[in-house]
Design goal:
16 helices, alpha/beta, Rossmann fold, 10 strands, four-stranded antiparallel β-sheet, elongated, six-stranded parallel β-sheet, 419 residues, Beta Polymerase, domain 2, 14% strand
């Protein structure tokens, strides 16, 4: 039994690589089914966000990392050599430490951001509902959730309002000194868009339009913030009104192309548009950045803005690492205990087989008319002798061979005097 994690994130791969290796909600179950059909893969969870793709597996082979790497490439139609330099791999204890750090937001683009915990929970729930998790990964992920809760409770890691959405709005406020007269078009209706809308409203944005593939979901979100709701097909009609565009959907293809933006600019008489594409794969074609009067930023471009908001979280992050270290030791101790559990089960099975054998002999003696007291003595003596025979012979051999360590271990195990 081996724990292995294979993945890439914002520190190891640029956005054009990350977007080619995502597992969208519509394909993740099929991907899990394909992954768990591989030899030696017992359990699996796939975590796929705009900033990371990670695969957690419980496997019976210590070579499974190479197998999973080959599978990732095949699944996405890429050669393993194309992606290998972007991937990291963790095993055993480092898997535990990494997952706990991810769940607590310590491995995120924005230190301590809370959205990742929800994404980890969702990834685990998807795998569990589909039947691809078992005892080991269930215990590991629950341990990660509990640790993240402790970190949020015991440290100030989440006190500062720092997120990708916050960074995007902060950058918009730098470009437009007064956003109270601006119109924002938000594409998508997920948690990031909800946060962005909240931040924009807190800074008194003039107008908000929310566009989503499902109009009902757009309306639900728009109602919370006194915004307007439209479908994605209506974007061309409203695009020229937008001074600020923030996009974050799970669409596999771009929603805004160079042509549609160019037409909107003409209608705006080339008043500038600020765009932030948070999605991976990207919602806005990279060629849009070539247009005059367009300021297009991706998640990778937000790094400088984000860094300015991290200082207050550094001390809390160090406290969080201390908690994580303790929790890694706790989980590792449980992991090691599994070997003892299997050994205990084998020992008990052996003892029960001996008991059943001797009991059957005793019952036959009773059926043949032997006095019960004589049968009881036979049962007790025979059972004791059979249970002690193998340990006794092994201890005699250990003594003959001078295996002092084994004798001392047996003394501790059976709570006897030291040899």
């Amino acid at each position: 039994m081996f724990l292995i994690t294979l993945g890439l994130n914002h520190t190891t791969a640029p956005v054009n690589i990350r977007e080619r290796l995502t597992f969208g909600p519509d394909i993740v179950v099929a991907a899990l089914r394909s992954l768990c059909s591989l030899p030696d893969i017992q359990e699996a969870v796939i975590l796929s966000t705009c900033n990371r793709t990670e695969i957690y597996v419980n496997t019976t082979s210590d070579q499974a990392g190479e197998i999973v790497q080959q599978w990732i490439g095949n699944f996405h139609g890429l050669a393993s050599a194309e992606i290998s330099r972007y991937l990291y791999q963790y095993r055993e204890t480092t898997v535990v430490e990494h997952l706990l750090s991810v769940a607590c937001g310590l491995d995120s683009l924005i230190l301590g951001e809370p959205q990742i915990l929800g994404q980890v929970k969702s990834a685990f729930q998807t795998a569990q509902d589909a039947g691809y998790t078992g005892k080991l990964l269930q215990r590991l992920f629950q341990h990660a959730f509990n640790t993240a809760k402790q970190v949020r409770t015991d440290t100030a890691i989440g006190d500062s309002p720092v997120s990708i959405a916050f960074a995007a709005v902060s950058l918009a406020r730098q470009i437009f000194s007064d956003i109270t007269q601006q119109t924002a078009l938000l594409i998508g209706a997920g948690e990031t868009i909800e946060l962005a809308t909240r931040h924009l409203r807190q800074h008194h944005i003039g107008q908000v339009i929310i566009a989503n593939r499902t109009l009902e979901r757009a309306r639900d979100l728009a109602d919370q913030f006194e915004a307007d709701a439209i479908s994605l097909t209506e974007i061309p009609t409203y695009l020229s009104q937008a001074d600020i565009i923030i996009a974050s959907t799970a669409s596999p293809l771009p929603i805004l192309g160079k042509g549609i933006v160019e037409r909107a600019l003409k209608q705006r008489r080339h008043r500038p548009i600020f765009m932030v594409d948070i999605a991976v794969p990207r919602d806005i074609e990279p060629e849009v950045a070539e247009l005059d009067d367009v300021y297009l930023y991706t998640v990778d471009d937000l790094q400088e803005v984000i860094q300015e908001n991290l200082r207050s979280r550094q001390e809390a992050a160090e406290q969080a690492k201390d908690i994580i270290n303790l929790q890694v030791k706790s989980f590792t101790a449980w992991l090691k205990s599994l070997d003892a559990v299997e050994l205990i089960q084998d020992y008990r099975t052996q003892a029960q087989d001996i008991r059943d054998e001797v009991l059957q002999k005793a019952l036959r003696q009773l059926e043949n008319g032997k006095p019960p007291q004589e049968v009881m003595h036979f049962l007790a003596n025979t059972l004791t002798n059979k249970l002690l025979h193998t340990p006794s012979s092994q201890l005699r051999q250990a003594g003959s061979d001078g295996q002092q360590a084994l004798l001392e271990a047996a003394s501790t195990l059976f709570q006897l005097r030291q040899p």
